[in-house]
Design brief:
The protein is mainly alpha-helical. The protein is built from 3 helices and 2 strands. It has a two-stranded antiparallel sheet. Helix 2 packs antiparallel against helix 3. The termini are far apart.
Length: about 90
């Protein structure tokens, strides 16, 4: 049976993550309050951030920056600013 959560990002009931994907208290908060759909949206933004800003995941400062962006995106409804990126207009 699929686990459902009330997704804080999407503001609706949706399929929850299968297991905790991120460590610590932040990871627990994500597991309990973020849907698979919202997590996939974050993964897309995360990849863009890592590539465009040339982040090194071995650098604690870069990991801290990425976590700050993740929390803002998932819980504070902040959009991720990626210099030079313009979304395709529909």
């Amino acid at each position: 049976m699929t686990r459902t959560v009330f997704c804080q990002k999407l503001q609706k009931e949706a399929d929850g993550l299968d297991f905790q994907l991120y460590p610590g208290d932040v990871g627990e908060r994500i597991f309990n309050n973020i849907s698979k759909e919202a997590w996939a949206q974050w993964q897309h933004k995360q990849t863009m951030l890592i590539n465009e800003k040339h982040l090194n995941m071995m650098d604690p400062e870069h990991r801290g920056f990425l976590e700050e962006q993740m929390v803002g995106f998932l819980f504070e409804n902040k959009d991720v600013e990626i210099e030079g990126y313009k979304p395709v207009e529909k």
